[in-house]
Design a protein that fits this description.
401 residues, alpha/beta, Lyase, Ornithine Decarboxylase, Chain A, domain 1, eight-stranded parallel barrel, 24% strand, binds pyridoxal-5'-phosphate
């Protein structure tokens, strides 16, 4: 069923369509470009996580990484809850049969209707400011909203997306958190715990573990200010996947061991407090690929260009976001091209925009118009994180196998 082999992690340069699912057939059925997500690969990843993580640690899926309804439904039976960033994501989870109590809403700028939707279904709201706490208490009018406070820690997780340390729009600064906790205690809100999320997409197990230990220490420091004992400490996520040349996969076994220690320490310092993790890209990123067709092949002053029928409007992170970092590219390959000679090409999308570029001077099997090019590690932050309306070209199909 998998594009390569049933359980293979899809890696650069090792692609073909020899699996039982033919990419060429999918391209015929759905047209190009399309995203392909393989459910079995998601299941497998969840299995690896469950094996590595301490028992009792709650695992939430962050819907924004890939909000495809079929994926949310698939995960509903496998994770302990969902992290949602809007009323619409919350509705997706409810539509998949998830109970409101298993949802947690985060985001530095929640609308009134986001907050109202969370209260209505009994979701936890992760508060990101004192004003938001007041607004929520007012909106909840009678119903008691369950809340966590997101704290901007004094440290950060050095990774691609930094969300802690220094001035941030996320959460309340740790030095103000005591005061805000006291304020929350004076409001008609059901305080349940803290949320610390210092960064995303990190491949260094040691750095993630260190951030978790620091988050735990911070939570213990804030405990005296909390209006109620901590029932939950959300450690955020940060587990990365390798997308660029030279990156090594996260050592999940080592991280798991370190997290067992964190869990033991938490049991000692924060009794009866459950730990949770919220992961997006680590759950779905490696289970998905993007497939586009070569429209044009052209030579320009010594360079060979392949122009695909999909680009930054579908897959911003693999194209437009790399403006200024053109030496980086996602792993990609020419479908069925294993036996062809390699050549150096620049791979572009179809848009009238120079930053619509997949890779520069990449060695790929020789390709002609009509050939399919597959981009791996594309299951997270693909279509949902891309400017799909730019130049009004067709959307990519979403195939869930
Ligand atoms: C986006 C997000 C996540 C998931 O991040 P990934 O890098 O996809 O794992 C988790 N928690 C919060 C609050 C987020 O905003």
């Amino acid at each position: 069923m998998l594009v390569r082999k049933q359980t293979a992690r899809w890696q650069a340069g090792a692609a073909d369509d020899s699996g039982s699912l033919s990419l060429a057939e999918l391209a015929e059925s759905f047209g190009t470009p399309f995203y392909l997500t393989v459910s079995a690969a998601i299941d497998e990843r969840i299995g690896e996580l469950r094996e590595a993580l301490p028992a009792g640690m709650r695992l939430l899926y962050s819907i924004k990484a890939n909000p495809l309804l079929g994926i949310v439904a698939r995960l509903a039976g496998q994770v302990d809850g969902f992290d949602v960033a809007s009323a619409a994501e919350l509705e997706s989870a409810l539509a998949c049969g998830v109970s409101g109590g298993a949802l947690s809403m985060t985001g530095p700028g929640k609308r009134d209707d986001d907050l109202a939707a969370a209260v209505a279904c009994g979701a936890r709201v992760v508060l990101e400011s004192e004003d938001e706490a007041r607004r929520l208490a007012r909106l909840a009018a009678g119903a008691t909203a369950r809340v966590l406070l997101r704290v901007n820690p004094p440290f950060e997780l050095a990774a691609e997306a930094r969300m802690g340390g220094g001035p941030r729009k996320f959460g309340v600064d740790s030095e103000q958190a005591g005061e805000v906790l006291r304020a929350i205690g004076r409001l008609p809100l059901a305080f349940e715990g803290l949320h610390v999320y210092p960064g995303s997409n990190c491949l260094d197990a040691g750095a993630i573990a260190a951030a978790q230990r620091a988050a735990l220490a911070l939570a213990a420091e804030l405990l005296p200010f909390a209006p109620a004992p901590l029932r939950t400490l959300n450690l955020g996520g940060g587990f990365g996947i390798p997308c660029f040349p030279g990156e090594q996969p996260l050592d999940l076994a080592a991280l798991g061991e370190a997290m067992h220690e964190v869990a033991r320490e938490a049991a000692r310092r924060l009794p009866a407090c459950e730990l949770s993790l919220e992961l997006g890209r680590y759950v779905v990123g490696e289970a998905g690929a993007y497939v586009a067709r070569v429209l044009e092949r052209k030579a320009s002053r010594g360079r060979t260009y392949l122009i695909l029928d999909g680009g930054l409007h579908h897959h911003w992170h693999a194209t437009g976001a790399l403006e200024g970092r053109r030496h980086l590219h996602f792993p990609m390959w020419v479908v069925g091209g294993d036996d062809r000679p390699l050549e150096e090409v620049t791979v572009c999308g179809p848009l009238c925009a120079p930053h619509d570029t997949w890779a520069e001077n990449l060695s790929l099997p020789r390709a002609a118009p009509g050939d399919l090019v597959i981009v791996y590690q594309s299951g997270a932050y693909g279509a949902g994180a891309s400017p799909v309306g730019f130049m009004q070209r067709p959307e990519a199909a979403q195939v869930l196998a």
